[in-house]
Specification:
The chain is globular. Helix content is 68%, strand content 0%. It has 301 residues and is mainly alpha-helical. It is built from 14 helices and no strands.
Length: 301
């Protein structure tokens, strides 16, 4: 919970940076490779943002009563207020402090991330409407993208916003497709209600894994995810792809997940798609030596 490292005088900026780095390192996140190609200051900012996201996500996901989770997330709202007032009370808050002003990070996006975690904490989320699903992806993924864009050095413009929000949707939908069975074991079902009803699937996490209509639901949601990747590429036309390499590395990895799932087919009972370190390294290398191989011919910038 947020009470960790709660004595501001004892938290130096260097110690806070180190704590944020350790959070990223211990998580084993696939976002790490993209962060490592940034300059030291930009990388430290992304580590701090990731550490914040990890802390609030842990509150939503880990054991605890609904009331405890509400209280924990409320405290993080208070901590974000303190960060913007210049007086954070946690190591993660101190790590964020130097960056929120340097990179003009929008406070409302931090609060949207917390709102997304509140949706999970109040859940479990089961068969949301399409509108509610995209309200969730806007908060759980889009807000992180909106915080990341100024750190990467992208301009404040509509194309940057469109890129961040479309990519956030694409990544989150791909994750949902990969994790259906895993989520169901935890009592969650992020698949949209409209598609479940269209293909006569139960609105029940316990029954979804063997539902005859599930392959059709997966295929339909994959089409939406694919469209979101295309919208990301469209926004990229107005931006400098070199600045956005960290995001594009993630885009390459997750689009590869989607490609592999699509090529394998959507039959029930298959193992979760994974990528080897070699595959991820190859995807990263393409952005450095041959980005036009990753951009579609009509998407070149």
């Amino acid at each position: 919970m947020i009470q960790e490292h709660a004595s501001p005088p004892l938290i130096s900026a260097a110690a806070a940076r180190s704590d944020a780095y350790e959070t990223v390192k211990q998580s084993g996140t696939s976002f790490g490779a993209g962060m490592r190609i940034l300059s030291a200051e930009r990388r430290a900012a992304m580590y701090a943002i990731y550490a914040f996201c990890r802390k609030v996500d842990d509150i939503a996901d880990e054991d605890g009563s609904r009331e405890e989770k509400r209280a924990g997330l409320k405290e993080w709202r208070n901590e974000i207020d303190r960060v913007y007032d210049g007086a954070p009370a946690t190591s993660t808050g101190v790590a964020l402090l130097e960056h929120v002003h340097r990179f003009h990070l929008p406070k409302e996006e931090f609060n949207l991330v917390i709102e997304g975690m509140e949706m999970d904490a109040e859940g479990p989320i089961i068969a949301p409407t399409m509108v509610d699903l995209f309200a969730y992806t806007r908060r759980a993924a889009g807000a992180v993208g909106m915080l990341s864009m100024p750190v990467f050095g992208a301009p404040a413009c509509k194309a940057s916003d469109d890129f961040a929000l479309s990519l956030g949707d694409a990544l989150q939908l791909t994750n949902i497709l990969r994790d259906i069975e895993e989520d169901a074991e935890e009592g969650r079902l992020y698949l949209p209600r409209e598609l479940l009803e269209q293909y006569d699937c139960p609105l029940d996490p316990d029954a979804i894994a063997t539902a005859p209509g599930l392959p059709d639901v997966r295929a339909a949601l994959a089409v939406i995810a694919r469209r979101k990747f295309a919208e990301t590429r469209q926004a990229l036309k107005s931006l400098d792809w070199k600045v956005l390499r960290p995001a594009l590395l993630m885009m390459g990895v997750y689009e590869r997940y989607l490609d592999k799932m699509t090529a394998r087919g959507w039959a029930n009972g298959q193992l979760k798609i994974e990528l080897s370190k070699l595959e991820k390294t190859f995807i990263a290398a393409r952005w450095f030596v041959a980005p036009k191989l990753v951009l579609k011919p009509h998407d070149e910038v």
